Amino acid sequence: MNGLAYHLDPARGRNGLEARTQELPEPGPHQVLVKVLAASLNRRDLMLMDGTYPLPATPGIVPLSDGVGEVIALGDKVTRAALGDRVTATYFVHWVDGPQRLAHAAEQYGANHNGMLATYALLEEDSVVHVPEHLTDAEAATLTCAGLVAWAALTTPVPVQPGQTVLTVGSGTVALFAVQHAGMLGARVISVTSTQEKAERFRKLGAEEVIVRAETPDWEQEVAQLTGGDGADHILDTVGMPTLPKSVASGAYNAQLTMIGAMPGPALTEGDGNPFGNSYLSIRRIAVGSRTHFEAMNRAITEHRLRPVIDRTFPFEQAIEAYRYFSEEDPFGKVVVTMS
Question: Are 178 and 236 contacting, i.e. CB atoms less than 8 angstroms apart?
Answer without folding.
Answer: yes
